[in-house]
Amino acid sequence: MRKRLPLGPAMLDPVGPELTDDDRRRLQHPASGGAILFARNYVNPAQLCALTSEIRSLRAPELIVCVDHEGGRVQRFREGFTAIPSMRRLGVQWDRDRDAARKAARAVGVVIASELGAHGVDFSFAPVLDLDYGSSSVIGERALHFDPLAVGALASELIRGLAECGVQAVGKHFPGHGFAALDSHVALPRDERSVAEIVNKDLPPYRAAIAAGLGGVMPAHVIYPQADAEPAGYSTYWLQRVLRESLGFRGLIFSDDLSMEGAGTAGGIAERAAAALGAGCDMVLLCGDPEGQDRLLESLGRTALASPAGLEPMRRKGQRDYRKSVAYREALATLALLE
């Protein structure tokens, strides 16, 4: 019998392709709200369906299940899934044929949503809305383009393609990770540009994506010292004044992984979570650190989501297998023609 328990703000990853007793204990903790999956959690389609089914069986309301499935080098599930091109490929197509690029971007959304949904995954942390300034070691070909107009247009089509097949999108890394050179997984990047330049160049894709129905946003572990001394994920300036008030975003805000080096300014795991939630994040991610997850859950106690209703739109819509649809078959054909 499922344990009835309000969902909490912690998003955790299981350690392998099957749940261990410790995984189950953590995911059934009152502060847990979802599971994020990685390549280490994947063997084949049947195994993935069994894993997501067990995760959902642990409690009611069901935990959210998500993944980083952008395409290119960031695609966690490969065998049995369509190989999604890097987002740069869509940008290259934009420079050749804008209508074809829009169609391909929408096709990417349809394929990702159809295949994830069929395996019990609610959403992907995509699309990347960072601009390709040519300086970031971690963004690179994950970015759609250097032109904010192109990024906004292509991301909006991808978002519509996801929604067409019942899946919400999460844009990242707000307000923009494309200019900062360092990788926030292993360092603390700084972006020394003026606030005006960031607002004028990096925020237009977010405006377009929000208008297209963006469901979630993930802030960057990057410091923008002209605006705030804290990284964006710990900054009320970026999350409240800019994202909520100026851009009018009403969806969920997910922290980036709190185990990353760029998240270390706040202190230990408990302090990082408190800083993120205090600044305006709705959910906090902690990945690849089982012992840290225990400390995180202990620090959160019985903390529930501040707005439980806000998580519901992130659930995949319906039980239909969109892989049987005409839209999916047409999307596959479109991707096959992508130059």
Q: How many structurally independent domains?
A: 1
Q: Tell me, what is the CATH class?
A: Alpha Beta
Query: What is CATH's topology name?
Result: TIM Barrel
Helix content: 25-40%
CATH architecture field? Alpha-Beta Barrel
Please state how the strands of the largest beta sheet are arranged side by side: 8-5-3-2-12
CATH homology superfamily name: Glycoside hydrolase, family 3, N-terminal domain
Task: Give me the number of helical elements.
Answer: 12
Distance between the termini: 51 Å
List how many beta strands DSSP finds. 12
Instruction: Please outline the major beta sheet.
Output: 5 strands, parallel
Uncertain stretches of 5 or more adjacent residues: none
**What does the radius of gyration come to?**
19 Å
Q: Mean pLDDT, as a whole number?
A: 95
The protein's oligomeric status is single chain
Q: What's the shape?
A: globular
Structural class: alpha/beta
Beta percentage is 5-15%
Order of helices and strands: EEHEHEEEEHHEHEHHEHEHEHHH
